[in-house]
Amino acid sequence: MTPQAFFDQLWYSYVEITPQADQIRDLFLATDAEVINDHVAFRTFADSPIALDNLEPFVLAMGYQVQADYDFEEKKLRARSFIHSDSTVPKIFISELQTHKLSPKLQAVLGKYIAQIKAEPTDHSVFWSGRHWQTPSLEDYQSVAAESEYGAWLLTIGLCVNHFTVSVEQLNSTNSLQEVLDRVKAAGFATNLAGGEIKGSPAELLEQGSSMADKQEFVFVGGEKQLIPTCFYEFAKRYPDNNGNLYQGFIAASADKIFESTFTAA
Length: 266
Ligand code: OOG
Ligand code: NI
Hints:
It is an enzyme of class 1 (oxidoreductase). This is 2-oxoadipate dioxygenase/decarboxylase. This protein has 266 residues and is an alpha+beta fold. Strand 6 and strand 7 form a beta hairpin. The chain is globular. It is 31% helix and 24% strand. The chain contains 8 helices and 10 strands. Residues 39, 41, 93, 163, 165, 234, 258 line the site of nickel (II) ion.
């Protein structure tokens, strides 16, 4: 699959559960000829047929290389980023929940669902395949959420792109991340304030911010209905290093806060 076809399909599946994405993109298309994507991100369960290691071959097959690995000890996540030889192709960030690090109780609850994941992926459609397990119960959702918001999000939503990211330094209308976030807020969308509205700094060569995830009504297996977070939009501004090359990495401390864009607690 070509990166172009891959990202087209991803965008299509993303806006379906993230109506804010189209609206936010339109905000910038009103002033900019193009809105260029910096990266997209996925979440999955480690130690499962859809673990990071089993997704990776499909990323590499599109011409990507492994860029770096990250560890989020407190959230019990590990992650890897991928960069393409064509610098106009968005980077890909994949994280996975290390379920073996969760409490025995939670391992048992999530284990019931993870055991239902049938086979390893055979093509790129795994990236928009959603849930590979039955609709969860509200009780299970709540017990997972108490220990891992990421786990609860993944249990309801499944495998899909969880954000696209506007490349702020490539906008023509503004070069200011704060201005971008102000426009998003003025249009009625909440931004993620965890660790400050802007994560990172020019000194770190990367500044990031994001919207809070859209919410959608979810019907649990017992028929209970509750609003759950779906996906969000990110905005990233990269700075050149001393050699004049635009920094391309991710910053673990900032990523740790971007994960909270799908948190339910205010
Ligand atoms: C990914 C969070 C990390 C970034 O840009 O640092 C990230 C997630 O929320 O799944 O996207
Ligand atoms: Ni991101």
